[in-house]
Design a protein that fits this description.
single chain, Hexosyltransferase, 41% helix, 13 helices, alpha/beta, Spore Coat Polysaccharide Biosynthesis Protein SpsA, Chain A, golgi apparatus, 10 strands, hexosyltransferase activity, 402 residues
Length: 402
């Protein structure tokens, strides 16, 4: 009887050891865990839950001012850096290789983006976030021409006292929907006084996010995420991303969302359908196969203006660990939405034309009244022309009817 019991114990011990070794083998060979989130290099994203626990903690601190060097921000940056360093290690090695040989459009990350989450060093203070419905994030630049564009927006469609805004204050549909407009800006770098001028501008107007991001086209994706992360700390329903060479009738945007019954999840704009991915080395919009391994882009909304419901923001923050971000931020968001199985919405009252500034004087009044957002290349002069026409049509002695 004793030997029988000992034999059973030995069998049990042996089976336990086998199970332990099997589990260790599975952990070492992580490719069998298909449910574990991975980045584009195949590394397991083992810190996402930690990061988002910290992020939720940050979001809950609604009074947090991001430019303060708080312990929460340091904790977030440390955790994000640890994960993104692993994501970028292989990519950086590829970049070094590609600097010394012909670029491999298939196997290199080209053009290389050293993506990281950046929190603004300067941001609006004393923001009344109670019942804030939408944040409008205007992507802008660091040099003189961009300061002129920002000033034009402040005086035209971003001006809360313009005619259309005054009329909206009496509109039962939208009068209680609060919005906030901020400009998202990086750094001009040494050799100019632009950064000092931008900081003075931010102090004067209290409507700018300035992050330690070198201003160039490749870093647009980093600026996009900086704005969205900052906006996510508020209990908002939507963000609207725009460029600074567009004209947006914000009350009409709010009215659209009301009439659509506040859709969620929502990804809406002027939609590009199935465009071919540019693989030509040196092209402005070129993206290598390493970043995106399909021939065509899915349908996506161009970056001039598009709207996201806030329930999509955390999913976008997670997505950078699944697919390494590339520089064409609008296409990247479109790919993410396709992967999230979020239906794209085409907003018919949005209109994009590469020479919109030349078209504006030719457009008829009734056409303009039917549009909610117009771009690209709406320079300060064109913005003023549009503003004056809308003021006359909407609040003139004889309001225009179509």
């Amino acid at each position: 009887m004793y030997f029988l019991r000992l034999k059973r114990q030995l069998y049990g011990f042996a089976i336990t050891l086998m199970c332990i070794f099997f589990l260790m083998w599975l952990v070492v060979n992580q490719r069998f865990f298909t449910w574990i989130p991975r980045n584009s290099d195949g590394h397991v994203v083992d810190s996402i839950q930690q990061i988002h626990a910290v992020q939720r903690r940050c979001v809950c601190e609604s009074s947090l001012v991001l430019e303060n060097n708080s312990s929460i921000l340091r904790e977030i940056n440390t955790k994000l850096s640890n994960v993104l360093d692993r994501v970028n290690t292989t990519a950086k090695a590829n970049k070094v290789k590609s600097d010394n040989k012909t670029i491999d459009i298939v196997n290199d990350y080209y053009p290389f983006v050293d993506f990281k989450f950046v929190f603004p060093q300067i941001s609006p203070t004393n923001v009344d976030s109670r019942d804030l419905f939408m944040v409008v994030l205007v992507n802008s630049g660091a040099t003189t021409d961009y300061r002129k564009r920002r000033e034009a927006i402040r005086q035209t469609w971003g001006n809360r006292s313009n005619c259309e805004q005054r009329k909206a204050s009496g509109n039962e549909k939208v009068k209680d929907l609060k919005w906030l407009l901020v400009f998202v800006v990086g750094k001009a770098g040494p050799g100019t006084n632009d950064d000092e001028l931008n900081m003075a501008e931010a102090r004067q107007h209290n409507d700018m996010l300035i992050g330690n991001i070198t201003e160039n086209y490749l870093n647009n994706i980093i600026k996009f995420y900086m704005g969205q992360v900052w906006a996510s700390k508020f209990d908002i329903k939507y963000t609207m991303k725009t460029d600074d060479d567009v004209y947006v009738r914000i009350p009409r945007v709010l009215e659209y969302l009301v009439n659509a019954k506040f859709p969620r999840p929502f990804y809406g704009g002027w939609t590009y359908a199935g465009t071919l991915v540019n693989r030509k080395i040196g092209g402005k919009w070129t993206v290598s196969w390493k970043y995106y391994g399909e021939k065509d882009w899915p349908r996506f909304n161009p970056g001039a203006f598009f709207i996201l419901s806030s329930d999509l923001l955390n999913r976008l923050f997670n997505y950078v660990y699944i697919r390494k971000p590339f520089h064409t931020d609008d296409a990247y968001v479109g790919v993410a939405m396709r992967d999230f199985r979020v239906r794209i919405t085409t907003i018919s009252t949005f209109r994009i034309d590469p020479d919109m500034n030349k078209q504006i004087p030719k457009l008829k009044d009734c056409y303009l009244l039917g549009k909610t957002a117009l771009g690209h290349n709406v320079d300060p002069i064109a913005s003023k022309i549009l503003f004056d026409r809308y003021e006359t049509m909407l609040c003139g002695n004889i309001p225009k009817k179509c």
